[in-house]
Structures are given as structure tokens and as C-alpha cells.
Amino acid sequence: MNKFREVIKDEKELRALIGEPSKLVNNKVIDYLDDNCAKFIAQSPFLTMATSDRQGFCDVSPRGDYPGFVKVLDEKSLVIPERPGNKRTDSMHNLLSNPRLGLIFFIPGLGETLRINGKATLVMDDELLGQMAFKGKKPLIGIGVEVEECFIHCAKAFKRSGLWNPDTWKRKEKLPSAAKMLVEHTKLPDMDEENIKKRLDKSYTERLY
Fold first, then answer.
1. How far is CA 168 from CA 73, 164, 174, in A?
2. How close are the terminal C-alpha atoms of the chain, in Å?
3. pTM, to two decimals
4. Rounded to an integer, what distance in angstroms lies between the CA atom of residue 68 and that of residue 169?
5. Dihedral sign, Cα of residue 48, residue 113, residue 21, residue 146
6. Which of 6, 26, 41 is nearest to 116 (CA)?
7. For residue 2, what pLDDT band results from cuts at 50, 70 and 90?
8. CA atoms of 33 and 73, how far apart (whole Å)
9. Integer Cα distance of 153 and 24 in angstroms
């Protein structure tokens, strides 16, 4: 049963409610990485990656590393190194069936973000991956992106959320516990909260690369 009684049914109805974008907004989208975009990416230590499989089931995954960890090859292409994770490979599985993806690049303290949409390929070029090695370890795979859309996104979400404002941050003991969530979600008999916390801490300190 649909719990939402009043819904938007088509684009015409949506536009009637929201209105039309300005010329500035319409004209800001480019289909290549200019010098401004390259400089933004060079200072970004974090991005989110949106993918979906061929049935349309979606996933958004974070990627983070040293500033500029994403390598811009030219005006139409970039490569994201795939560092060690939990081996679920959700994003990569999706990209094998549907290469479309969306990226948002973040720079700490900056409200504006950079959005890039395009098509991806899983790359195993040894020479290229070697250029993204860190602490003597190169990624096994890179996610190569052919850029189709690129544009700056305004800071309103960050202004409203206060995300970069330390005064809005809660004390650590008030934050959700990943270990507690994992215990209650996985329901594994030999895993308690302290055990999982130790495993997480070890992963964060010994298996980043």
C-alpha cells in the first residue's frame, strides 16, 4: 500500500510546482574537464559515486584518499583508484552491467561541489595503476570515466546542514556506533560489539592500502 497520498505524476506537474531553471543554471553544464575542473579534482580528497545495475537498482559509494587521488588524463577522461575495501564490489558489479555513473567531488570547508556524469570502464592498465600507487601499493583496478557532463553545484545543502561547521558536530559518544549496528544487523553468534570494534580499528589502521 502506498503511504504517500499526494504524488507528482509527470514532469509537467513538477515544473508547474518548482518552476524553470535560470539561464545561468542551464548554461553551466560542460561536456569536458576544463582547467577549473582539473584544479577542483586536484584538491579533492573525497567523492561519492552513484551507479545502478541494468534493472535500475541503485547504489551510492564513497571514495576517499589523499587530495588529488583521482587522476585526470585529459579533457574527457579520469581514473579513480580502487583501494582495498570490504570486497562487496557493489559499484563495480553495477558498472559491468550498466556503465553509467555519477560523481560528486568534495573539498573540506568548501560548500560548492563538482558533479560529473559519464560512462565507466574497469581498468587494469599496469603502467597507469602504478602512477596511483601509495605507500608502495598500487590499486588492483581503476575506474576509468569518460566525461559526458560536468558542472559546479551550489553550496545551499552545506549551508542548510552546517556540515563543515564544527559547532554543529555532536560529541563522539553521541554518534551512532558502527560496531553496534553490525552486531544487530549481521546477528553472527561469535561477534559482539567489542570484537567488531577491534576488527574495524585494525582494518582502519592496517588495511587502508
1. 38, 8, 13
2. 46
3. 0.95
4. 26
5. negative
6. 41
7. confident
8. 10
9. 12
Measure the CA–CA gap between 49 and 63, rounded to whole angstroms: 7
Beta bridge partners of 21: none
- pLDDT tens readout for residues 18-32: 999 999 999 999 999
SS3 labels along the chain? CCCCCCCCCCHHHHHHHHCCCCHHHHHCCECCCCHHHHHHHHHCCEEEEEEECCCCCEEEEEEECCCCCCEEEECCEEEEEECCCCCCCHHHHHHHHCCEEEEEEECCCCCCEEEEEEEEEEECCHHHHHCCCECCECCCEEEEEEEEEEEEECCHHHHHHCCCCHHHCCCHHHCCCHHHHHHHHHCCCCCCHHHHHHHHHHHHHHCCC
What is the reported pLDDT for 30? 98
Instruction: Summarize pLDDT for 29-72 with one digit per residue, the tens.
Output: 999 999 999 999 999 999 999 999 999 999 999 999 999 999 99
- Residues 45 and 42: their CA atoms lie apart, in Å, by 8
Residue located via cell numbers 600507487:
133
